[in-house]
Amino acid sequence: MKPSTRGALALLLLASLPAAADEVGCVTTTWKLIGANHKVCVDAFSDPKVPGVTCHVSQARTGGVKGSFGLAQDPSQFSLACRQTGPITLPAKLPKDEVVFSEDTSLLFKETRIVRMWDEAHRTLVYLAISRKIIEGAPANAISTVPVMPWGPKSADGS
Questions:
Q1: Could you tell me the residue ranges of all domains in the chain?
Q2: What pLDDT, on a 0 to 100 scale, did the predictor assign at position 31?
């Protein structure tokens, strides 16, 4: 395979991966004598395929000794808010649903996943946060919607 083909393939693969989040901050909910405290953390990420949309997700994080070593299973407790933060540019072929964010919430088998759905009839992006387990699913979920609308000031004549 040519180096240029490998580079293009690598870029395509990276573009198809869920977004990486930036930690906004954490708040302690329970102080632990040994190990990390229990906390709720807020992460921000931009939709990797829809410029102009930013989501914030808050998640409970288990502390204690197990949490300090990454062995604890975080509870399926989260909240989601997505907003238009710039001009929205929809790709030519937007899948009906697609994973845009994924984060492990235990050492094995459990993750928080955010799926983007396109509601064509209402021209609205729908973001659904779920907790997934390989063995058994969890009903915990959160939803946020972003209507696709013009961005920026408009004059009285509509221009």
A1: 20-147
A2: 81
